[in-house]
Amino acid sequence: MPGVLILRPCPCSCSCAALPFMSAHLGSARARARARALTALASSSSSSSSPIPQTASAMLASASASLIALASSASASSYTGRLSMSLLLPIEQRRSDFTQTEAIDYPESDTRILQTAVDCANVLLQNLGCDTAEASLKRLSEDGGAIVFAPVGAKSKVPGAQRIAVAVLPNADDLPALKRYAENDQWGTKTKPMILVTPQWNPGGEGYNVVSDFGFGPWRAANEKFVDSFSLAYALVERRIGAASTLDATGDNMGRGGVARLVFGGSTSDEPWSVWAMGGDGSSALIGTLASSGAGNNKPPPYAEIEQLFRDAGTAASLRTRRSGQARSLEDKLEEKVGESGSVADWSLMSTAEVAAALRAGTVTSGDVASWNKDVCRKACDALDLSSAGKVEALRERIVAAMEKETSEAKK
Question: What predicted TM-score, i.e. pTM, was given to this entire model?
Fold first, then answer.
């Protein structure tokens, strides 16, 4: 697979044109945001809001559920078969632990990121009831994203759909190909839905570079019209707020700001985005809800409003406070879940913490190990404190031997 050029957003995931303490324009909205934040903090332990996904599989399950609800709703008269999603791919630091927010020193290759996105597309299609064994994959452009086509199976969960297409990581250079699929092959209809997953283009405006990737004049208008025809079905995005990782003279985190994950679940309410303060120990706390930044397009709330929620929440939401490590590890939580359910998530998207939890819970079989690729085997070797050197066949034998040894010792 050729390498891909992925347009990466600003590392701080914020509006670089906005001043850190811009708040004069908020007016009465500031008081409403403060009230929401204080209420959310007081009731976060008993909140009825859905918990923020802690694994890629949970994220994809929530995304597919939102899409199915949108397509199945009797009141969804605006549903046309064109949908979009913004997902946090299980890459880089999230490959080890999906809840981690600190970037790794060496980013992954674009090819590996694209492959992970395709894996996510396959799981999403399976959740929608598609027959992924008959799926086909095509590149949208040489340096762009990819699109996966799959026929629906007997257990299709999307009413009226015959085939479904999922385009992952499309950039502005991919727009001509996407338009051809829509205009010539009628993709993006109720019988042939098209889903855009984590688009990489820069539309311009707040939170993006000043210059749009969509061109100028009539070309930009045409591209914007096409992109706006896709309704947001689900989103899980991350924003760094303030000086989340700035260190003081002692080497400690300064404590101003934090890391937020925002969840949109296809709601039609006035304030559909829930804002969660993330912790360095993998914990999270709901600190408020915010409306979309634009009418009808369900864009994430402006940076300034998210920052105000963190200010209103105080030190309880700061990354410094949430670095304490007092919460139970994700691995411990997942081990309990695996033990109760007796099953595990899709292996291709499991993080190191998930693999370790499955091994500790004793739900991994030799048959599972035989299906693992080298990436999963390496995660298992790390969890079992084994060498990860060698070919994948050697790694599988090493893992099975270690599992059998642990089982025999446990019987003594």
Answer: 0.77
